[in-house]
């Protein structure tokens, strides 16, 4: 009985691009029109809470106009069918993986559909606008902020992610530029522990040379093809 490979999948903005959500560093990317320093740092939040809260209110509202694409659906199908260990680690803050049906999923950079209390640390589902000074249901403080990991803050679930990488036999990176750590270093960590590493991306990324294999193309084509091949092995 061959043991089934443990799989860790990292996703970035590129997997949501075909759903119409702009990536960060492409032409017309989200950061254009906004300097990162103006909307995604603790200093920006302290300096101009209205601007920061409004930036994420707009992105949260835009979720109503987008749908998961074939790549999200293929990963959800793999998650449901794979009898071995599997974890999807997303850098994305949209909810498209969940809406496609993914369950074994962690958001390392936070989520638009969640609010974080800066006073007590409670996180709670949140829909609609989140004006500065909104009250926390857990502690009552008027301290709710977007539940987004800002530059310079610690990503979420790193212990679980590092444990999964240490046990991975297969690490697949989908739609990320490899520009931001710690996610950009996951391929080296997985390879150090003996995983086979595969990149599925539209363009070569900053980390492409670190992968055993890179396939270039749109996620909506490459991911369903890759999942179909893997599930074929289960037959
Ligand atoms: N299919 C596959 N890959 C795509 C597609 C597509 N249709 N469209 C774009 N890509 C690729 C691009 O080639 C690029 O390598 O997706 C990647 C997007 O890179 P970024 O815009 O840098 O997004 P990401 O890698 O997720 O950024 C990482 O940086 O700004 C922070 O916190 C933010 O989580 C984000 C992190």
Q: Can you describe this structure?
A:
- It is a single chain.
- The longest helix is centred in the first third of the chain and has 14 residues, at 49-62.
- This protein is of the alpha/beta class and 235 residues long.
- The mean pLDDT is 95.
- The chain folds into two domains: 1-21 and 68-109 and 155-235, Rossmann fold (3-Layer(aba) Sandwich); 22-65 and 112-148, SIR2/SIRT2 'Small Domain'.
- 38% of the residues are buried.
- The protein contains nine helices and nine strands.
- Helices cover 32% and strands 19% of the residues.
- The strands form two sheets. The protein has a six-stranded parallel sheet with strand order 3-2-1-7-8-9, sandwiched between helices. A three-stranded antiparallel sheet has the order 5-4-6, covered by helices on one side.
- The two termini are 14 Å apart.
- The structure holds adenosine-5-diphosphoribose.
- The site of adenosine-5-diphosphoribose has 23 residues, from helix 1.
- It comes from Sphingomonas metalli.
- Its EC number is 2.3.1.286.
- It is found in: Cytoplasm.
- NAD(+) binds at residues 12-31, 91-94, 175-177, 219.
- Belongs to the sirtuin family. Class III subfamily.
Give me the secondary-structure category.
Answer: alpha/beta
Question: How do the strands line up in the largest sheet?
Answer: 3-2-1-7-8-9
Q: Which segments are poorly predicted (pLDDT under 50) over 5 or more consecutive residues?
A: none
CATH architecture of the largest domain: 3-Layer(aba) Sandwich
| Percent in strands | 15-25%
Bound molecules: adenosine-5-diphosphoribose
Helix tally equals 9
Number of E-state strands: 9
CATH class of the largest domain, anyone?
A: Alpha Beta
Could you tell me the radius of gyration in angstroms?
Answer: 18 Å
Mean pLDDT score:
95
Question: Could you estimate the helical fraction of the residues in percent?
Answer: 25-40%
What global shape is seen?
globular
- Our count of domains comes out at 2
The CATH superfamily of the largest domain is TPP-binding domain
Order of helices and strands: EHHHHHEHEEEEHEHEEH
Please give the alpha-carbon distance between the first and last residues: 14 Å
